[in-house]
Amino acid sequence: MKFYYVYILRCADDSLYTGITSNLGKRFDEHCDGKYRNAYTYTRRPLTLVFHEQFTDPDQAIYFEKKFKRWSKKKKEALIAGNYDLLQSLSECRNASHYKYKPLDGVDDDKSDIV
């Protein structure tokens, strides 16, 4: 059975790089060795593998890689730390029109006194 990996690397500048591969060890070595001069990680070495998830379905791995790439750094850091409560909180919609939205403390949302 073939496996696919979605992974996150921490770069020397503390940025995070998300990628996908079918051979995690080989791909990590390529990043660390600077195999591709145009790669994001080339000038940001040394690198640390901080997260990886294994998949058996390549389409599912691709889906999750694209999803992780859109996440904020805070959300990725929560995933890396295994802080699933914070990850859940960061995943909730904060738009004022969302039904779960609660205004900040001290902000009066009651507009009944407006004439």
Give an overview in words.
The protein has helices spanning 24-33, 58-70, 73-81, 84-91; strands spanning 4-10, 16-21, 48-55. The chain has two domains: 4-70, GIY-YIG endonuclease (3-Layer(aba) Sandwich); 72-102, no CATH class. Helix 3 (73-81) packs antiparallel against helix 4 (84-91). The protein starts with a strand and ends in a 24-residue tail after the last helix. By secondary structure, it is an alpha+beta fold. Strands 2-1-3 form a three-stranded antiparallel beta sheet, sandwiched between helices. The radius of gyration is 19 Å and the shape is globular. A hairpin with a 5-residue loop joins strand 1 (4-10) and strand 2. The protein is 35% helix and 18% strand. The protein has four helices and three strands. The model is unreliable at 107-115 (pLDDT under 50).
State the name of the first-level CATH class of the largest domain: Alpha Beta
The CATH H-level homologous superfamily of the largest domain: GIY-YIG endonuclease
Please report which band the strand proportion falls in: under 5%, 5-15%, 15-25%, 25-35%, 35-45% or over 45%: 15-25%
Strand tally, please?
A: 3
Structural class, judged by helices and strands? alpha+beta
The CATH architecture designation of the largest domain is 3-Layer(aba) Sandwich
Low-pLDDT segments, ≥5 res: 107-115
Number of helices: 4
Determine Rg (CA atoms, Å): 19 Å
The shape is: globular
Estimate the helix proportion, in percent. Answer: 25-40%
- The neighbouring-strand order within the major sheet is 2-1-3
Distance between the termini: 69 Å
Number of domains: 2
Q: Within the CATH hierarchy, at the fold level, what is the topology of the largest domain? A: GIY-YIG endonuclease
Order of helices and strands: EEHEHHH
* Average pLDDT score: 88
Main beta sheet: 3 strands, antiparallel
